[in-house]
Amino acid sequence: MWSHRKRTHEKYADAKTKVDLLFKALRKKGYIARQNYLCCGSCGAYELGELFSKKGIPEGDERKAVTYCRQSGAHFKECANVYLNWGGNGNEIVQTAHELGIVCDWDGSHASRIRLVFAV
């Protein structure tokens, strides 16, 4: 049991470093990128919508954001995989992740979250 937890923690630390690099790269591409952003995806989506509205950015692909909430962050620590909420260009997000060696699971739909997959 202890060795499994230790391996999971080590995998999480490696995965977290890669996710940090991904979010940094996406910020350079104009995305708002936030980790452990608010309590849940619904609150995060609402707050981002308010932020974009205040900045005068219309709805659509110009609203570039990628986040995961605290609920997803807790899951990330347990299993070293995380689901991203996103807006903008999903292909760009996935391509950026692939460039950093991150495996993604995504069906290409705007309605689906992008899962970053890290083996445990």
Highlighted features:
single chain, 120 residues, alpha+beta, 5-stranded mixed β-sheet, 4 helices, 51% helix
Structure described in brief:
This protein has four helices and five strands. It is of the alpha+beta class and 120 residues long.
Describe the model.
A hairpin with an 8-residue loop joins strand 4 and strand 5. The protein is globular and about 45 Å long. With 120 residues, it is α+β, with helices and mostly antiparallel strands. 51% of the residues lie in helices and 16% in strands. The two termini are 14 Å apart. The protein has one domain. It has a five-stranded mixed β-sheet with strand order 1-2-3-5-4, with helices on both faces.
Which secondary structure elements does this structure contain, and how are they paired or packed?
Layout: H1 2-28, E1 32-34, H2 41-54, E2 65-67, H3 70-79, E3 82-87, H4 90-99, E4 103-105, E5 114-117
Parallel strand pairs: 1-2
Antiparallel strand pairs: 2-3, 3-5, 4-5
Decide which structural class fits the backbone: alpha+beta
User: Strands of the largest sheet, in order across it?
Assistant: 1-2-3-5-4
Rg computed from alpha carbons, rounded to a whole number of angstroms: 15 Å
Q: Main β-sheet, in a few words?
A: 5 strands, mixed
**How many individual helices?**
4
Distance between the termini: 14 Å
Work out the number of β strands.
Answer: 5
The low-confidence runs, each spanning 5 or more residues with pLDDT under 50, are: none
Mean pLDDT: 90
Please give the share of residues in helix: 40-55%
Tell me, briefly, the overall form. globular
- DSSP strand (E) fraction? 15-25%
Write the H/E string, N to C. Answer: HEHEHEHEE
